[in-house]
Amino acid sequence: MSVTLERPGTEPGAGPAGPSPALRRAADWARRAPLLPALIFMIVVTQLPFVATLVISFMNWNAYYPDERGFTGLDNYVRVLTDVAMRDAIIVTVELTVVVVLVSLVLGMVIALLLDRKFFGRGAVRTMMITPFLIVPVAAALLWKHALFNPEYGLLNGVLTWIWGLFGSDNPPQPDWITMAPLASIEIALIWQWTPFMMLILLAGLQSRPLDVIEAARIDGASSWQIFRYMTFPHLRRYLELGALLGAIYIVQTFDAVFVITSGGLGTANLPYIIYQTFYTAHDYGLASAAGVITVIGTIIIATLALRTVSTLFQEENVR
Amino acid sequence: MATVTYDRASRIYPGSERPAVDALDLQVEDGEFLVLVGPSGCGKSTSLRMLAGLEDIDRGSIRIGDRDVTNLKSKDRDIAMVFQSYALYPHMTVADNMGFALKIAGKSREEISTRVREAAKILDLEEFLDRKPKALSGGQRQRVAMGRAIVRDPQVFLMDEPLSNLDAKLRVQTRTQIAALQRRLGTTTVYVTHDQVEAMTMGDRVAVLRAGVLEQCDTPLRLYQEPDNVFVAGFIGSPGMNIAEFTVEDGQAVLGRARIPLTTATLSALSTEGADRIIVGYRPESLDLVSETEPGAFPVLVGVVEELGSDAFLHGTLPELAEGESTESGQIVARVDPARPPAKGEQVYLRIQPGKEHLFSAATGQRLPA
């Protein structure tokens, strides 16, 4: 993505007769030249790998069959969309993203509404609520897998044992959570990590709520629920959209949680995991690249919507 | 329609010792337009927000008609408020903004639509009903805020500086429109402003507040002609009243060469107080340019003359002030004939028209009998 920023006054012909064109061009380059090294570096590290991936996605390139390397056109894309494992991965990715985004949005909103009230120790509680988002994703996934879901020594089954113990039973149910609900386990871990993110965005939205409008609604006779329904929620709509889109961009790319908790087994392999598998296990570079390109296209579509939301948000702030 | 009564109502903000509004006693008659006026921080907005239910009432009570609303929520008080910022609902159209309260009250769609149309007609907003607030000009937004209030037909209108976001010309125009609208609807109105011209032109009565205390509440004319104390005297009127501290000598108030004879009533009030000083106020238009020989004439050095066309104001100083008399006491503003304004630097003689001076106690600032 490239953005050109130009001062309105420097447009040719805009201002009064300035210096000669040659001089102006020299001045322009004097400003641009120092930026060039950084620009070139950025293109090399971000754009070239993508171009390479794009090229490879049109190639038949498998490390196990080095002799068959060559261009095959759209073959890899057709395989991505028709391969059962790939199609399942797409469906899993969509399901994972939708469930995690929606549930963490709802939870984030409830927590944000609670944290928007004044109470003693609000700052401390707010900081604690944010911490899950600050944990390294792999560490969080390991924490859920071993400290919580583990059937032998996990916290969940420990709690069950304790509750059953209260009633004098020494035979509590000890379900194997990850085997029972593999995708749900991943989703819960991700929701735990992403709720604080949604909460932060929505809390920012809540605190930018104009107070006088709420007061006007109260005088107009609205109850607390009606104020939420007619004032707060419409105000939060943009923030909800923003949270959903930003969250979706990241959650589509989830790899850590799937890799750590289920290793893609039991129908939990999503697109990033399948790409990883195709690349490192099957060594089918062409197919992996094609799947990667499809993921990128999907993400760009979401990102475009996200950017549009952000810009309307800023426009509304300006109007106020 | 209803009266509004503040009965020793006080508001003390948490963490503050001094009440923002201190034992306010005020009675607003049915259908009256009462203006609360005062410098910023005087508690006028707080008083209004207490009536609106947006601020707690820490002591005393407030009644609307016979109902004690002290502990009622805003939504149960049957009031409508116009905010300084208008507080329009940004995501709703003008029609939805105006109809919101009716919708909350569970009125039928047809009734809402008719009442919104009626209000829009009164306020000349019919063509904007489908627009969002951000597509309106400042004056139109102000009218929508008014519309939102009148659609509800409440017992009391509350207005919190509704004109302060308009430009000067529109403000004067809207000022008369609001006053006319209130007369037409006959709804009891409490209006807050810091602009004393607005207060004087709009209010049936004006309540002057300072530091949370009600200084005086009366008709605009009586506030102007008979201010209860030095603060009201100085606050009401533009340009302000000349106020200076005079010494009392031989039954006269003396400052420099200015001498004002005092009546026996004033002198006896002063002697019970044991004061040898008195505060004298006189309005710019109570001064006449006279010749030196006229009794009561005193010299003034002309500093600046402001010529406004219809009026001319002379800003000058009293020369020959005695030691210890502050130079501020010697500042004088006088209205002079715009056809023959005196020149800058000239020395002229002024005289206070007999009986037009206002006398206040130097100790308490209260009005003394003349």
UniProtKB/TrEMBL annotation, chain A:
For membrane topology, the record states: Multi-pass membrane protein
Annotated organism of origin: Geodermatophilus ruber
Span of domain ABC transmembrane type-1: 90-306
| Name listed for the protein in its UniProt record | Carbohydrate ABC transporter membrane protein 1, CUT1 family
Entry-linked CDD domains? TM_PBP2
Location of this chain's protein in the cell? Cell membrane
What InterPro entries does the record tag this protein with? Answer: MetI-like (IPR000515), MetI-like_sf (IPR035906)
Q: A GO term (biological process) for this protein? A: transmembrane transport
Give the residue spans that cross the bilayer.
35-59, 89-115, 127-144, 177-203, 239-265, 285-307
Keywords on this record? Cell membrane, Membrane, Transmembrane, Transmembrane helix, Transport
Which cellular component, as a GO term, is one annotated location? plasma membrane
Query: What Pfam families does this protein map onto?
Result: BPD_transp_1 (PF00528)
Ranges for region Disordered: 1-22
Automatic annotation (TrEMBL), chain B:
NCBIfam families in UniProt:
PRK11650.1
According to its UniProt entry, the protein's GO biological process terms are:
carbohydrate transport
Show where the ABC transporter domain sits: 4-236
**Cross-referenced SUPFAM superfamilies, in alphabetical order?**
MOP-like, P-loop containing nucleoside triphosphate hydrolases
The GO terms this record gives for MF are: ABC-type transporter activity; ATP binding; ATP hydrolysis activity
Q: Taxonomic classification, please?
A: Bacteria, Bacillati, Actinomycetota, Actinomycetes, Geodermatophilales
InterPro entries linked to this entry: AAA+_ATPase, ABC_transporter-like_ATP-bd, ABC_transporter-like_CS, ABC_transpr_MalK-like, ABC_transpr_MalK/UgpC-like, Mo/tungstate-bd_C_term_dom, NA-bd_OB-fold, OB_MalK-like
On whether Nucleotidyltransferase is a keyword of this UniProt record, the answer is: no
Q: Pfam families attached here?
A: ABC_tran, OB_MalK
Extract the Gene3D superfamilies matched here. 2.40.50.100, Nucleic acid-binding proteins, P-loop containing nucleotide triphosphate hydrolases
Q: Which GO terms describe its cellular component?
A: ATP-binding cassette (ABC) transporter complex, substrate-binding subunit-containing
Could you list this entry's UniProt keywords, alphabetically sorted.
ATP-binding, Nucleotide-binding, Transport
Q: What is this protein called?
A: Carbohydrate ABC transporter ATP-binding protein, CUT1 family
Superkingdom assignment: Bacteria
